[in-house]
Amino acid sequence: MKSTLEIVSDGLAARNVPILLIGGMALHAFDVVRQTVDVDCLLADDDADILRAVLTEAGYEEQEHTENFSRYVSPLVHLMDIDVLLVDKHTFTKMLERSRPVEVGHTVIHVPCAAHLIALKLHAMKNDPKRETKDLSDIIEILRNNPGAVPDDELQAIGVRHGPSGIYARLKGSL
Questions:
Q1: Residue 96 to residue 146: CA distance in whole angstroms
Q2: Distance of CA 92 to the CA centre of its chain
Q3: Contact assessment for residue 10 and residue 58, using Cβ atoms and an 8 Å cutoff
Q4: Backbone angles phi, psi at 63, to 5 degrees
Q5: Domain assignments of the chain as residue spans, ordered by start
Q6: Nearest in space to 121 (alpha carbons), one of 23, 39, 21
Q7: What number does CATH give the domain 1-112?
Q8: I need a surface site. Which of 24, 79, 81, 122 has the fewest CB within 10 A?
Q9: Backbone phi, then psi, for 100, in 5-degree steps?
Q10: pLDDT at residue 35 is higher than 90
Q11: How many CA atoms lie within 13 A of 146 on its CB side?
């Protein structure tokens, strides 16, 4: 019986389609532990139909779909829901180049570098302020547990580009 990550990773690997693990499960790669009830992934939008086919074949149903997001659910209780953030191929390629493989259970999957994961969390906070408590805590823990992984100048640039106003000062004040 395959896990959710094995279904995604094996199905896409067989088709030579890369994917990045983001969200709560990706935090483990940065020595941050947080409970999560789903699998969050990042995929090039050109590959969305391939993932849809892989998941449909495994019994998943697409519950929600927008231009840049899809949610899949399985009727099987042992399989987690899957949230997929879709980005353009150029953005995905840049993130994939700086990603690294991690072992999660019996699966090796790539996670974004710390800077890119933080940028995703800041973008989410900026667009949905209700996420701030959880995402800000995740960002602070990534930075605390991985000193030097994101240089100050890069963190400041990420904060200005992706985060809410004044986020860099708030982050620095929390470290």
A1: 20
A2: 12
A3: no
A4: -90, -30
A5: 1-112, 113-175
A6: 23
A7: 3.30.460.40
A8: 81
A9: -145, 150
A10: no
A11: 21
pTM: 0.93
Q: How crowded is residue 2: how many other Cβ atoms within 10 Å of its Cβ? A: 15
CA distance 118 to 144: 13
Residue type, 99: S
DSSP state of 18: -
- Bridge partners of 43? 86
Residue with tokens 């860099």: 168
What residue spans of 14-62 are helical by DSSP H?
48-57
For 80-123, what is each residue's pLDDT tens digit? 999 999 999 999 999 999 999 999 888 999 999 999 999 999 99
CA 169-174-175 angle, 5° bins: 105
Measured CA to CA, the distance from residue 69 to residue 16 in angstroms comes to: 21
Q: Using CB atoms within 10 Å of the CB of residue 61, give its burial: 0 to 12 exposed, 13 to 18 middle, 19+ buried.
A: exposed
CA distance 107 to 63: 25
Q: Name the strand (E) or helix (H) holding 162.
A: helix 152-162
Q: Sign of the C-alpha dihedral, residues 124, 18, 24, 2? A: positive
Instruction: Note the pLDDT tens digit of each residue in 41-57.
Output: 999 999 999 999 999 99
Q: Which of 4, 38, 34 is nearest to 109 (CA)?
A: 4
